[in-house]
Amino acid sequence: MSDGVNGGGMAEKSPRESAGDVLEFAAEAEESADGGRRNPPWLILIVDDDHEVHAITRVVLGEMMFEERPVRFLSAYTARQARSLLAEQPGIAAILLDVVMETDDAGLKLVRHIREEMGNRQVRIILRTGQPGQAPERDVILSYDINDYKAKSELTAQKLYTAAVAALRSYQHIAAIERGRQGLERVMEAADHLAGLHSRSQFLAGLVGRAAALVTDARSALLCGVGEDGGPAILAEAGLPPDLPPEAAIDILPPEAAADIMAALADGQTRWGARHGIAVLRGRDAAPLALCLLGGPFAEGDRPLVELLCGKAAAGLDNLRLYERLNQAQIATVHALGKLAEYKDEVTGDHVRRLGRWATAIARELHARNAFADELDDWFCDTIGLASVLHDVGKVGIPDAILRKPGRLDDGEMAVMREHAAIGGSILRDASGGDRRGYLSMGAEIAESHHEKFDGSGYPQGLAGDAIPLAGRIVAVADVFDALLHRRPYKKAWDIGEVLDLLRAEAGSHFDPRVVDAFLVVLERDGAGV
In this protein, which residues make up the domain named HD-GYP (predicted)? Predict the structure, then answer.
C-alpha cells in the first residue's frame, strides 16, 4: 500500500538500482587538496516507496549546506532496504521516513528497530505521512521515539528545509555530546592504564600512544622537553616511521610546530595550529613537557580532551616520581641492612651477590614454565634478587662468639643461631610498614622461611610444602648450593658434583622438587659461574 504523494503507488526499486544509489553517493566523497578528509557530507536517508517523493526531496534540498558541509542523500524504498543502509552507514544524521510502505506500519516498525534493536539514539527521525488518519500524530509522538511528524500535504519546500536543518542541528549537538562522552571514557581509561606503569620509559611511551589514539586526525604524537642544545628534544613518540630515529624526527618537524613547542615549554600555554596541536604537562617539581600532535585539522572537541589527558598524565608523572623515590629509598635500606649483616659475617658479601643472581634466574625459569602462576609474576622476578640480600639479616642479633665460631656449634649454640630467622623476619616486617609488595616485605618472608624444609622438619615454624612462601623455597635452594660450594670457617668447599647430588637427593624432603628442577636447568644452560 502506498503512502506517497498523490496517493500513487510506485514499483519498488530492484536491489541493483538501490545499490547504484549508494555507489553514486560513495563516489562523491570530498577530499582536500592535500588528500586529507575535510567537510564530510551530512547523510540524510529518504525512506519512501514513492520514487517521486525521493526526486522532489532531492530537488528541494539538493543544494543544501549546513555548517559548511553539504548534504548527501541515500534512498531506500522499503523498510528492509533502510535497515541494510543503516547498518552499512552508521553516520546517517537524519531519516525522512514514510509510515506506510510494504505494510501499513512498516515505518513505525522501522523506528522500533532503529531505537531498540540497533540502539541508535542519535539519528533524527522525521515521520512523513500522506495518510495521517492511519498514524495519528498524538499517538505516534507518545508511542515512538521520533523527532518530528509531518503530513506530506503541509510540507512546503521551506518547511521541509526548516525541518531538515533542525534535524541536522539536533544531530550535531547529540553527536558532539556522545563524542565528548566517549572521549572522556578514553581519557579516564588511558589515565588508569598509565597509573599502573612504574617505569618512566613505559609511562612516556604509553602516553604518546594513547594521545595519538585519542584524536582521530592525529598522524603522530611526540612528547618533548628542552634538549641540551636549548631546542626541543623528543622523549617519546608514536606514529613516526619505525626506521626514523627520534633525533632525526626533530629535523623534520614543521618549523611552526617546533617554534610552538618551545613557546609552550616556556609559558605553559597550549597552542593549536592548522596541522599541529601542543598541550603542556606541568608537574609539581619537574620541568614542563610538551605533547605535540601532528596531523589535523583537529576538531574543537578534541582540544579539551587532549588537555585533560595531559593534566592526568602530569599528575601520573608526579606520582611516578614519588614511587621511584620510595623505591630508591627501599633499595638503599636493603643495601644498608645487607652491609650491616656483612659486617657481622665476613662471608656474606660475595655470597649474597651470587645468591641474588641464582634466585632471580630460578624465578625467571619457573615463570617461563608458567609454574606457580598465581604467585609468580614480573614483579616477583624483579624483586627476589635484591630481597634475597636480606635472608640472613637476623644474624645481627646473634653473638659473635657463635656466629664466628670456627668449628661446629653444639646444640645450645645451634638453638641460638636458629633464632636469626625469626629475628630477621621481625626486623624486616616492621621496617616494611605493611607494604606487601616491596623489597622489605619479600625480604621478611625470605629471612624467616629459607630454613624451612619441604617435609616440615625445618625452622623456625616447621612449615611444609606450599605453606612455605615461594620466595623462601627458591632462596633455600640457592643458599645451600652456594654455601656448600664455598669454604666457611666451619667447613671446606664441596665439589660441584657433590652439591648437585645433594640437591637431587634432598628434592622432596629439604627442597621443593619443582624449584630444584628449575635450578638444574638454569645451571645446565648458564653454567655454575662460580
Answer: 326-530
Same domain, 410 and 466: yes
Query: Per the domain annotation, does 200 fall within a domain?
Result: yes
Question: Angle CA(143)–CA(146)–CA(150) in degrees, nearest 5?
Answer: 105
What does the alpha-carbon distance between residue 168 and residue 175 come to, in Å, rounded to a whole number?
10
Question: 373 is in which domain, residue-wise?
Answer: 345-526
Residues 6+ apart with CB under 8 A from 182: none
Q: What is the pLDDT of residues 7-25, one digit of tens each?
A: 333 333 333 333 333 323 3
- pTM equals 0.61
- Judgement on whether residues 352 and 495 belong to the same structural domain of the protein: yes
At 107 the three-state DSSP class reads helix
Task: Select from 287, 320, 353 the last residue of a domain.
Answer: 320
- C-alpha to C-alpha distances, 478 to 125, 328, 423, 462, 512, nearest whole angstrom: 73, 26, 21, 20, 12
**Nearest to residue 523, comparing CAs of 507, 503, 506, 509?**
503
* Active centre residues (catalytic): 395
Give the three cell numbers for residue 84.
541494510
Q: Residue 82 is placed in which grid cell?
A: 533502510
Tens digit of each residue's pLDDT (9 = 90 or more) over 392-433: 889 888 898 888 887 788 999 999 999 999 999 999 988 887
List, for residues 321-372, the tens digit of each pLDDT value.
Answer: 888 888 888 888 888 887 777 666 655 567 788 899 999 999 999 999 999 9
Which of 238, 514, 7 lies closest to 522, judged by CA? 514
Among 70-79, 87-96, 235-244, 387-396, the minimum mean pLDDT is found in 235-244
User: Is there a domain that residue 187 lies in?
Assistant: no
Pick the closest to residue 444 from 384, 360, 377 (CA basis). Answer: 384
Q: 441, exposed or middle or buried, with CB in 10 Å at 0-12, 13-18, 19+?
A: buried
Kindly list the distances between the CA atom of residue 326 and the CA atoms of 20, 208, 319, 412, 436, in Å, as whole numbers in the listed order: 66, 26, 10, 41, 14
**Any idea what the CATH number is for the domain that residue 56 is in?**
3.40.50.2300
Q: Which residue among 179, 208, 225 closes a domain?
A: 179
Distance between CA 283 and CA 287 in Å, rounded? 7
Per-residue pLDDT at 230 = 83
- Per residue in 470-497, pLDDT (tens digit) is 999 999 999 999 889 887 666 688 999 9
Number of domains in the chain: 3
Cα–Cα distance measured from residue 114 to residue 120, given in angstroms and rounded to the nearest whole number? 6
> How many residues does this entry show for the chain?
530
Count other C-beta atoms under 10 Å from residue 303's C-beta.
Answer: 16
Residue 332 lies in a domain: no
Report the alpha-carbon distance of residue 70 to residue 465 in Å, rounded: 74
CATH code of the domain covering residue 490: 1.10.3210.10
116 and 42 part of one domain: yes
